[in-house]
Amino acid sequence: MTPSPSSQSILIPEPGFGVYVHWPFCASKCPYCDFNSHVRHQPPDQARFVAAFEREIATMADMVPGRTVSSIFFGGGTPSLMEPGTVGAILDAIGKHWSVPAGVEVTLEANPSSVEAGRFRGYRAAGVNRVSLGVQALNDTDLRFLGRLHSVAEAMTAIEIARATFPRISFDLIYARPGQTPDAWEQELRQALDLAADHLSVYQLTIEAETRFEDLWKAGKLTVPDEDTAAELYEITQGVGAAHGMPAYEISNHAAPGAECQHNLVYWRYGEYVGVGPGAHGRLALPDGRHATATEKHPERWLASVEADGHGMIVDDVLTLEEQGDEYLLMGLRLKEGIDLARYETISGRTLDPTRLADLIGHGLAEVTPDRRVRATPAGFAVLDALVADLAA
Fold first, then answer.
1. How many structural domains comprise the chain?
2. Does some domain include residue 206?
3. In this structure, are 228 and 372 located in the same domain?
4. Residue 113 pLDDT grade (very low, low, confident, very high; cuts 50, 70, 90)
């Protein structure tokens, strides 16, 4: 495992302790989405859901008391369908049970429709200091194809309001859309980067199981760019992002230096995190080992479970050392900084196969830094799933 001569040492902070809050409701179901999101014809009873969130937070705090929160993230679903008072009450509950230092990153995902953008000032007053906008595309034709309810004009307005309201903003884009050319994507990406967000998440369109797009794809009514074109679009993303001062710090995420998403870094650095709300997942370090938790996905069933039992957990498994090691590889190698070999050995109780690692280094897919970090090279990121599988074998 000879270090790459070009490798540099990196000072990596502790992984941290995050709290993830899942709001499962959406105004409509996007045809590409396989997240736990649900459409209701009648608005949910937010007061009742607030009470349930408060109870589940209390239960989780009994499991992992005394933690200091390093990030909070409201995901979904569409959290911007929540009333600002709902967000504030949940933040108050988190602060009641754990230590939340001033200035901790509090992110809320939002759809950039004009009605939801008008709530931004209320979210800021409630304690949100970072917003992540689901823009997804910067042309109206593709927004309609993706099932989005906003227009480009509404997205621009939401971005403007967000910039004036929050210290930090991010937004998402989806590439490798049907018929998308490299030139068109580069132009759209440059336009996005000029909008002065400090963070950009860029995801390749994939056909997920049990989605409307899967039905269309199976019927031959939907074709996405081939692998070579998708790879070219990815390379454009890396180059344009770096040239605009927002290099990739994770395979799908770009940020200005210091503007990386602190909550997602908890996941990728394999820290602890609590998941509350329907379908939320967690990873908790308890005396008997590291636990993987998950809650009931169906919102109303989750609500009934919390009201009856104080929580909606349906999974609470103790992970084996091998499972923990595999998860650390899977998450950590997504980051440009890679994984700490010593920590991998501590977590998993084993060492990486030196022959496999040397082979990956020899093929230019991985490197080892002087301080014993393993990370993917740019070529390795292009085949990351295979690289992780090889190391985990």
1. 2
2. yes
3. no
4. confident
pLDDT tens-digit map of 169-225: 999 999 999 999 999 999 999 999 988 679 999 999 988 998 888 888 888 888 888
Average pLDDT for residues 284-292, to the nearest whole number? 96
Are residues 235 and 325 located together in one domain of the fold?
A: no
In a domain, 9, yes or no: no
3-state SS record for the chain: CCCCCCCCCCCCCCCCEEEEEEECEECCCCCCCCCCCEECCCCCCHHHHHHHHHHHHHHHHHHCCCCECCEEEEEECCHHHCCHHHHHHHHHHHHHHCECCCCCEEEEEECCCHHHHCCHHHHHHHCCCEEEEEEECCCHHHHHHCCCCCCHHHHHHHHHHHHHHCCEEEEEEEECCCCCCHHHHHHHHHHHHCCCCCEEEEEECCCCCCCHHHHHHHCCCCCCCCHHHHHHHHHHHHHHHHHCCCCEEECCEEECCCCCCHHHHHHHCCCEEEEECCCCEEEEEECCEEEEEEECCCHHHHHHHHHHHCCCEEEEEECCHHHHHHHHHHHHCCECCCEEHHHHHHHHCCCCCHHHHHHHHHCCCEEECCCCEEEECHHHHCCHHHHHHHHHC
pTM higher than the cut 0.90: yes
**Residue 179 domain flag:** yes
Q: Is residue 96 located within the same domain as residue 218?
A: yes
Examine the domain organization and report whether 45 and 182 are in the same domain.
yes
Task: Indicate whether 67 and 214 sit together in one domain.
Answer: yes
Task: Assess whether 249 and 348 both reside in one domain.
Answer: no
- CATH code of the domain containing 339: 1.10.10
Q: Terminus-to-terminus CA distance in the chain, angstroms?
A: 17
Range of the domain at 392: 321-393
Same-domain pairing of 263 and 325: no
